[in-house]
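Dear support,

I submitted the protein below through the web form. The confirmation email said the job was done, but the results page showed an empty box. After a refresh the structure appeared. I'm attaching both so you can tell me whether what I see now is the final result or a partial one.
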Amino acid sequence: MTKYEKTILSCLLDKYERSKSFTGDNKNVQSFSVKLTKLYPKYGDEAEYELLKDLNETTAELEQRGFITAKRKKNGIIDSVCLNTQLLDSVYKYISRIPKADINEKLIEMLDRYSGRNELLTVFCNTQKERLSQNKKAEFFDGDLSEYENILKAVSVIYDVKDETFIRDFSVRVFGDSKAFESIIGKVRRLLFQYGDFPGEETVLEDLNIIKNPGHVYFKGSAEIVVNGQKIDLSRLDGDIALSSELLPKTDSIKITGKRVVTIENLTTFNAFCRKDTFAVYLGGYHNSHRRDFIMKMYHDNPDVEYCHFGDIDAGGFYILLHLRAKTGVPFKPYRMGISELQQYADLTKPLTENDIKRLKNLLDSEFSDTVKFMLENNCKLEQEAMDTENAK
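What the results page shows now:
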């Protein structure tokens, strides 16, 4: 079989598999054809004699096998070729291609097996079965059934991870191979973000305790913390300290000696942040179970102080704040995340992307509606680093 044969037959099969004839919904007999010049623009060019000769011979061979019929011009140039749907099984076998119907059948069987493993996966699997029934492509499927099962397998167990686990260790635990998860990590992350409840796609895995490097929580300011019986008075230190996720559960008590707690989204902003009577916390860009437990303990020990979140003035920043509230039950207020900051630092704002606009529109009926409307009307967003945190009030 030549490369020309495979290209021509694959194109015709693609057309067939996208049709109503494939799904059985067509009431009329359909034909599936393609012009050779669409596949090979230089076909028919007198300067490309070898290409013309090879394609004419290829077409004649496929006609002889009964796979296609060809429509020729008066000069012998082939105008188009049409698939013989009576020999579909033979065509699939000839180019070693698995029929789409067989692939869909295997996909549905796989989706049925994984549906019900957790709430997110149930919704995802049901959605994909509906897509397949409409002759649409299953999301995140690129033709590799083994890879697709690995994606479903990872999502089926990822919510069971209770302690911070390195990516390689999770991969060994689930697949028996330290590298297997790396090859599908992007698709798993997008699937979880699309079907789950996460503030940002880039930190989905960390939110679920799957990490690349050891996690730490950084803090500084007006507080006294007792860890394993040892008291640390942060107000007497000039800088910050960090506790690893392993030590966070060993925190005995947290006493806020100031008036306010501020969680900060960006590390650069955290490093520059300096306010009296404030306990500042950097969560490492995400808040998994250990970090949430730390925050909830802090709130339990200090329910009367003010709790604020300082994030980017964009859709991601608002979603992180909402997610932080929902997962901890702590009534965080937005800190310097409004119209006045957008106006004050107008020269440092950035234009919105299509995804920004889409996500912001979903917040038009939220408590941030005034700020969101301003951002949409002025095509702007603002990163924390652009603000003068030294003078934050």
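Response: this is the final, complete result; the empty box was a page-load delay. Residues 100-211 form one domain.
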